[in-house]
């Protein structure tokens, strides 16, 4: 997947012109935005300046909902990446079995082993009051209670609080089970790989996506879900918010996809 860290690194170290600009190791094929400078401005605009009166938390408090007995790496990487690109505080809400493992990866993360508690939704919801953005799904697992029940209720709380939300991995499994859960939530970004995309598309549209029209398929699914943003990961990342597949991103730096 296109990582914000590598995007920033590439953007800040170089600039070039033309509608299809090669920026660092990325090639951007713009459809709506055709000026690389504009893209740089957009990225800069979301990064708060550091000042002497800044306090910890001002530059971002992030919640990652995920981490189970089997999977501890994915929530760690999501949470630590937020810190590496400048957020101040990164919280992980996971199951008890995952928490000591995740804590031992890094002293920088705040880890709440509460997803199996009967107060999970209530407690997480109280923490969400203080959060700026939420990532739901990395390493969540597909336990019927934790994923399809607790995480579902937490997602509803996120919507009530109108927080920006990234849904990945098993969070996409949840959304595929209940597409209405995410429908028309303008602050949602879904990040499916090709398999997750195919499942969600089929569930929502009642047919498989046509492989010969990959950009159109992302736009069609985004519209069907009320214009949520979809970042379909692949050899070309394809991003759409219901408009014309705004970016098709070719990414040459790595052949590894996730
Ligand atoms: C989604 O976006 C398209 C293109 O801008 C627009 O025509 C459509 O009405 C939007 N749909 C919803 C549900 O907002």
UniProtKB/TrEMBL annotation:
- Record-level Gene Ontology MF annotations: ATP binding; ATP-dependent NAD(P)H-hydrate dehydratase activity
Which EC number applies?
4.2.1.93
Q: Which reaction does it catalyse?
A: (6S)-NADHX + ATP = ADP + phosphate + NADH + H(+); (6S)-NADPHX + ATP = ADP + phosphate + NADPH + H(+)
Q: Which family does it belong to?
A: Belongs to the NnrD/CARKD family.
Which cofactor(s) does the record list? Mg(2+)
Residues that bind (6S)-NADPHX, according to the entry? 139, 193-199, 237
Report if keyword NAD is assigned. yes
Question: What lineage is on file?
Answer: Eukaryota, Metazoa, Spiralia, Lophotrochozoa, Mollusca
Q: Which PANTHER family match?
A: ATP-DEPENDENT (S)-NAD(P)H-HYDRATE DEHYDRATASE, ATP-DEPENDENT (S)-NAD(P)H-HYDRATE DEHYDRATASE FAMILY MEMBER
Signal peptide positions on this chain: 1-17
Q: Per the UniProt entry, what species is this protein from, by scientific name?
A: Mytilus galloprovincialis (Mediterranean mussel)
Origin superkingdom: Eukaryota
Q: What class of enzyme is it?
A: lyase
Please give the InterPro entries that the UniProt record associates with this protein: Carbohydrate_kinase_pred_CS (IPR017953), CARKD (IPR000631), Ribokinase-like (IPR029056)
Look up the record and give one Gene Ontology term from the biological process aspect.
Answer: metabolite repair
**Residues annotated for ATP binding in this entry:** 208-212
Q: What's the protein name?
A: ATP-dependent (S)-NAD(P)H-hydrate dehydratase
What region holds the YjeF C-terminal domain? 39-258
Q: One matching Pfam family, short form?
A: Carb_kinase
UniProtKB keywords? ATP-binding, Lyase, NAD, NADP, Nucleotide-binding, Phosphoprotein, Signal
Q: What does this protein do?
A: Catalyzes the dehydration of the S-form of NAD(P)HX at the expense of ATP, which is converted to ADP. Together with NAD(P)HX epimerase, which catalyzes the epimerization of the S- and R-forms, the enzyme allows the repair of both epimers of NAD(P)HX, a damaged form of NAD(P)H that is a result of enzymatic or heat-dependent hydration.
């Amino acid at each position: 997947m296109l990582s914000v860290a590598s995007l920033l690194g590439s953007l800040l170290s170089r600039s070039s012109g033309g509608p299809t600009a090669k920026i660092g190791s990325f090639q951007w094929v713009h459809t709506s935005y055709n000026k690389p400078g504009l893209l740089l401005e957009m990225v800069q605009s979301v990064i708060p300046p550091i000042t002497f009166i800044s306090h910890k938390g001002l530059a971002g408090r992030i919640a990652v909902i995920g981490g189970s007995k089997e999977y501890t790496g994915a929530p760690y990487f999501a949470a630590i990446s937020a810190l590496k690109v400048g957020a101040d505080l990164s919280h992980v809400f996971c199951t008890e079995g995952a928490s000591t493992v995740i804590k031992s990866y890094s002293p920088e993360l705040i880890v709440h082993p509460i997803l199996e508690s009967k107060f999970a939704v209530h407690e997480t919801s109280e923490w969400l009051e203080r959060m700026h953005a939420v990532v739901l799904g990395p390493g969540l697992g597909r336990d019927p209670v934790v994923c399809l029940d607790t995480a579902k209720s937490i997602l509803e709380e996120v919507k009530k609080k109108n927080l920006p939300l990234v849904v990945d991995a098993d969070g996409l499994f949840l959304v595929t089970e209940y597409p209405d859960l995410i429908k028309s939530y303008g602050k949602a970004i879904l990040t499916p790989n090709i398999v997750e995309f195919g499942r969600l598309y089929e569930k929502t549209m009642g047919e498989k996506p046509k492989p010969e029209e990959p950009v159109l398929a992302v736009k069609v699914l985004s519209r069907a879900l009320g214009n949520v943003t979809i970042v379909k990961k692949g050899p070309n990342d394809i991003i759409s918010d219901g408009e014309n597949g705004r970016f098709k991103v070719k990414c040459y730096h790595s052949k590894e996809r996730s």
